[in-house]
Amino acid sequence: TSVRASGVPAPPPSPAQLKPKCEFNFYSFFDMPFEVQMVAHSFLFPSNFGGQEGMIAVHLVSCYGHAVYAECLYKNDWFCEPVGELLESWEGYRQERIRDLPDSPVDLTCFSELGLREEILMGIEWSMALSTVATFFAFIVLAIMLRNFRQLHLVLLNIGAVGGTTLLIMYPVACYVMDVCVGAPPLFIGVGLAMSIDYSLFLLTRFNEERLDGRSITQSLEIALATQGHTIVVSGATLALCFTSMLVLPTSTITSMAAGAATAVLQSVLVSLSLTPALLLTMPRFFTADRMLGLTLDGTPFGTYRRASSGTVAQFGATIDRPTIIENPQPKKESIWAHVGRCSQRGAPVMFLFLALVMVPFAMALTRFSYVEDLTPLMQTTHPATKAFISISNIYGQDLTTPVQLLIMAPSQKAMASREWSLATCHMLQDLATKVTDRMHEEGHDYTMTTADFNGLMIFRGGCLADGLKFGVIDVMPAVHMYGMYDMVADLLSNRNQTATQVYVHCQVDLFSEVGEAWMRAVRASLPRPEVIRQPLGGHQDADSANYVPYGRWDDVEIGALHLYGMPLEQMDGAQYTLRRMPYVGLAIAAIVCIILGGSFGTALIPVRAVICIAWMLVVTFGASVMVYQLGYLEGLGIQALSPSSGQALFWISPSVAVAVLVGLGLDYDIFLMDSVMEHWQSGKDGKSAVVTSLDQAGTIISAAGVIMFLAFGALLASTTPVLNQIGFMLCVGVLLDCFVTTKVTIPCLMALVPDDANFWPLKQSATRELAIGREPSFGLEGIGQPPGFRRSLSWKWKYGVALEHLGHTI
Fold first, then answer.
1. Residue 660: what pLDDT?
2. CA-CA distance, 82 to 308, in Å (whole number)?
3. How buried is residue 581: exposed, middle or buried, by Cβ count under 10 Å (0-12/13-18/19+)?
4. % of the chain exceeding 90 in pLDDT
5. How far apart are CA 395 and CA 109, in angstroms?
6. Peptide linkage before 762 cis (omega within 30 of 0)
7. What totals of helices (H) and strands (E) does the chain contain, helices first?
8. Residue 532: how many CB atoms within 10 A of its CB?
9. Does residue 106 have a pLDDT over 60?
């Protein structure tokens, strides 16, 4: 019977308010005539569980007069707003029934594709909330490193500006350029958060160090922009290009993520080099008053004053142009990272061999890499919708949860209603089953497809409905027409104009298994095609041309256009095409790293060494992921986030998304360290001493950045969504390796194995430190060095600092 649900609040005023209702149909076995029950019983009560599991199907037709489709709730269409309330009301009925009838032998489970999509969105939103909570602890670490809680305002403003501008850019992109998947906003918000924190940490720590050396705010800011500005620009450009290279992948999910992440990186660079200096010059006293870590009122209109030794009154905090006077500066002790770097240099050959041996088991595990394509890694493991999805799949198979369907678009409504069209289409499907079987046998698969694997308006149980529907010698087709059941099924399987219909195509094995994927490819290749397009140019077909047949004829009857579709096909094509092109993306990323690092540092070996370090980190990271999520090495811990998910394999999107982020973060810390190494080498130190000195100065900063990123990404491990657990694990392992192994051990080791002349070739140490920076020595910028290839770009940076000073005064 047709039921209308009322009482659903209407959206903002619109013509659709004339129909503030949703229309849906219930298909209950107990309301069907006996003749129809004979047909429907095997479907609604499958024999897998002895007929004890049954289903009442609900067909949601329309809301506010608009046809409801699967993605309308996903895309936030206004007329789909009542759908969520309907799903909640049915779930509420189920819970009330359990409460009121606790001893009832009937157990109800509510499942819908719309609810499943909503549950996936909720999992992503929950993970973003966890990341927000984890960011609080990351900010505490950042404040301790900056020794000034006030400068956290700068970081927060940076993050807000980056997130806001990225959203403003990506919104029109989503509206007019490309479809943006729901995973893109969390990714580019996360990337913007990570880069904003990293870049702020690099810039502000150098700014604070120069102030502690007695320089004014203007001088300190100029030096910070000239040194760490180089790190930020090179890192941002490299990371943005790495993400951009992923646009060649044919999957809209990954390309939209890559576009958003590249935009967030560029915005992080622009905001870090403009907003932070401008605010520092606008409120110098406020942001430089660091007594008690800045937790005072110093530098504000309500601040305290102190009596200077000369009897004058001075406020806490520095001024723009007056240098800060440091009384009784304490000598610095060499940090533990300098000792680690020195030890790595002394035993460089042994350390190199040790790192190579460490990589071997992870590389061997990586050779066993496999991936899954089904939806379960995207679902929350503890959510009722996930349990319902798994239960429905076990009882009714994938035909109900993730079906493969053949859409047939008839030439006209009249043609589709004719007996000739129905018979010709049925005969075409029967022949298709034979061709699929032959193709599967040719490929070595023991699989036989039968005509009973097709179910639609023209075929059922392998027979053509135009010839009747017989159970033994009884033809029940007249009863099906008499009780209106055929028209009901036609409404369910056809569009309103009765010009297109869908046929469910049954697979006898798991669609995501090797045989299942071979079956999907066989069905696709066996679709009847006109001779002129049977063999495309070059012998290759993409997914769209293979799934779509512009027109087909059978028995001299024009059938119409055929389109094979379904989530399993989309997942299979996306995974295969993406992973097939990933090696090319890897080569492109390596080329980008070599070109940008070689051009910015002016050396030949630094980019090569960076590629080697990144490759080592990626092998260990992905090998560890295979060990955890495929081989189950940590399953004994009983931690859900570190246990294999469905299929005992990684979800195919996880490594595709993580690789660009890992490369970017690894280069971020690599460039930051090498900038310092080049600076000390240009000041006259040999290569080994320059590395040790740089680790002494920058090692703790890099470690703090790694801890901050670990806290931010580690929140994904607390999520109940397996794919987010996998991505979070990869990012956490990669960040820790970069910060505590690559920069502290691998780089000193590899540079110690090569002579200085080769490490920095073709550069030569500058005759004077002032010549290295292209600046007169009167500013007291001792110890600042840059590669000659970068000298021309330094001039605009000094002018940039002065321009920011004027901008700050204007603000």
1. 82
2. 70
3. middle
4. 17
5. 12
6. yes
7. 28, 17
8. 6
9. yes
